[in-house]
Amino acid sequence: MTQSLARACAKKPWITILVWVALVVASGAVISSLLGTATTTELRLSSGFESEQAAATLERLRGGPEPVTEVVIVESDSLTVDDPEFAAKVQSVFEQLSALGEDTVSQVATYYLAAVLAPETASQLVSADRKTTLITVTMVGDFDEASQKVEAVMHVVEEADAADDFRVLISGPASISFESNEFATHDLEQGERVGIPVAMLILLALFGAVVAALIPIGLAIVGIAIALGLVAIIGQYFDLVFFVTLMITMIGLAVGIDYSLFIVSRFREELDNGLGVEDAVARAGETAGRTVLFSGVTVVIALCGMFIIPMGFFQSLGLGAILVVIVEMAATLTLLPAVLGLLGRRVDILSIPFFRKRSRASSEEGSDSGFWEVTTRIVTKVPVVSFLVVAIPMVVAIVYYFQIETGINGVEALPDGSRTKEAFFVLEDKFAFGVASPSDILIEGDIQSPEVQGAMQRLTLAIVEDSRFTLPPYLDPASNDQIALMKLALPGHPTGDATVEAIIALREELVPAAFAGVDAVVKIGGQSEAASEIYDVVDQYTPIVFTFVLGFSFVVLLVVFRSIVIPIKAVIMNLLSVGTAYGLLVLVFQKGFAADLFGFQQAEVIDAWIPLFLFTILFGLSMDYHVFLLSRVRERFDQTGDNAEAVSYGLRSTANLITGAALIMVAVFGAFASGKTIINQQVGFGLAVAILLDATLVRSVLVPASMEMLGRGNWYLPSWLEWLPDLRVEAED
């Protein structure tokens, strides 16, 4: 199929190219008009979770989405709220914020207004030393609208902060979201600025020709553009997190360049072997094209494991990664043969003599000299020693994984200089950061009944007496006779460990004790409750996703290689790569080892979703290298029956290509790891390290050493499995 498709596209290159150009143009139009409204930074779970049920109840209470409230801090080193100059400063900021109009802010409240209108809540707006006060700003619209409109509020705050000796800061869900988007956009641009040029240099070294090196990058960009267009459309009907755009760009660059590298390399090799242009394209489609097809399908099915998790964040990332892999795979199997058929031998235009000579030499699969041949001889001569020399340090690194502390890095982990991060520390020092994002306690029932009123009083008293809570709850004015809303400001960031532990205690201990025997339904909502549920989801679904991905990989490799030993060993090798990456994440980010050297932030936790996300991505990406290598080994073993020679041949015929492809992935992922946000640093570093280890130490040492130790046992298939179909990835020569 891949051979016929490649030949057909090479025969009609302009038609194929025009179809893809039309898709890119259409995607560009969709992106410009729809992408901005297709994603959100709001973290949501499925409707079955208590935090989502509480949000639905809250929307019913308010007749729509809960308005987003921002907190503006006004602070002085010497004056207090009782001084006229302090009051004048607050009044000035109040007037500027109110002047933004009803299309941006719906309400602005200060300590001085509260002292007159609601004296019982005024004390919550001033610090104990009376040198800091809060201005609450209620934004217009839902979360996404507020995250855009808050820029005007932040501009007012910046001007007020620079005006005199007063310190004016802002924090809240919308401002944190806005600033996080700014940093994510910076990291995306940084990844493109650094990753693409480095990938280009690697491609130039591999191909030795400028045109040949430009083709994979161009193909990757085409796939990214179309995938973003698809996300822009899908995002109009389903909630997709903002990180999906970063995911598409990162994975699209990696796999797009990777897949086209296999095809272009094989095409040039067949031209060097004397085939005509059309036949060379067909041959590349028949061989490398089948590898790309198998690899792409394997990656997609592995990524489907993310849809098992009932959380929009995982599903968004999985959707973005799957879309871009499918598009890149389709472009590699259709658009690329058309371009190669059109270029023919002109693919080597602007050759770089030294590198082109090396490229030709590396394509001679039968060569029995060179670095990889020497490496294989050493490894297969002393396989046990070689295996232990590499495996032991990796196992040592894996040990650090068992010290992992997972959580959610919030505003406190934003880069230094972040405006909302600075406000976080002031709020935490003078109040509790929870005042900027309080948790919700929703009570449904006959609110005016003595039983419910008594339960609410018991709950308030229990919270006040519990050292895990620093501020008492207060009744929201939106409450009515059927639904009461109590707001509770928790200490620390809403997703921090201490805060999450406090909300769990509230849900599992204090609320049941206070409402025992009372005819009322109590739901806990807010970011802290959602964070606790996210941790539960990750813990619950990690073994399910692992079983799905590992089980699928085992079955596929069993069928492809007709051996029960190969899939077992492949699963172990891939787990070794991923486990080592986990351990190094802990060592670098939690322990701080070499963090300054890499320019990384040190953090107390690894984001809870990252290990599971890395597993699904890495298992899919590393599988194509494993299959690419083992298919050559199996092909040679079938021809000669000599296991040692087959291993040597397979390694030397694929090592340059696998290493080059891996280095490109490392360059792309490493570029994103150099960003400002700790999430991108952790994800990029984890992906880069695992791919680098997988394509070098695992493929060049552990795989050949283990295959040498097992000998013909590598290809053992129990007699009761002989009925399996004989499915090969590589076409026979």
Explain what the structure shows.
- The protein is 66% helix and 7% strand.
- It is an alpha+beta fold.
- It has 4 domains: 1-37 and 209-351, Multidrug efflux transporter AcrB transmembrane domain (Multidrug efflux transporter AcrB transmembrane fold, Up-down Bundle), CATH 1.20.1640.10; 69-171, Multidrug efflux transporter AcrB pore domain (Alpha-Beta Plaits, 2-Layer Sandwich), CATH 3.30.70; 367-417 and 539-733, Multidrug efflux transporter AcrB transmembrane domain (Multidrug efflux transporter AcrB transmembrane fold, Up-down Bundle), CATH 1.20.1640; 431-532, Alpha-Beta Plaits, CATH 3.30.70.
- A 4-stranded antiparallel β-sheet has the order 3-4-2-5, sandwiched between helices. A 4-stranded antiparallel β-sheet has the order 9-10-8-11, sandwiched between helices.
- The longest helix is centred in the N-terminal third of the chain and has 35 residues, at 173-207.
Secondary-structure map:
Layout: H1 2-11, H2 13-34, E1 39-40, H3 50-62, E2 69-75, H4 84-98, E3 105-109, H5 111-117, H6 119-122, E4 132-139, H7 143-163, E5 167-171, H8 173-207, H9 210-234, E6 240-241, H10 243-272, H11 277-286, H12 288-303, H13 312-333, H14 335-343, H15 353-362, H16 371-381, H17 383-399, E7 406-407, H18 419-430, E8 439-445, H19 450-465, E9 474-475, E10 483-488, H20 497-514, E11 520-525, H21 527-561, H22 565-590, H23 595-598, E12 606-607, H24 610-640, H25 643-673, H26 678-710
Parallel strand pairs: 1-6, 7-12
Antiparallel strand pairs: 2-4, 2-5, 3-4, 8-10, 8-11, 9-10
Helix pairs in contact: 1-11, 1-14, 2-9, 2-14, 7-8, 8-9, 8-10, 8-15, 8-25, 9-10, 9-13, 10-11, 10-12, 10-13, 10-25, 12-13, 12-21, 12-24, 16-17, 16-25, 16-26, 17-22, 17-26, 19-20, 20-21, 21-22, 21-24, 22-24, 22-26, 24-25, 24-26, 25-26
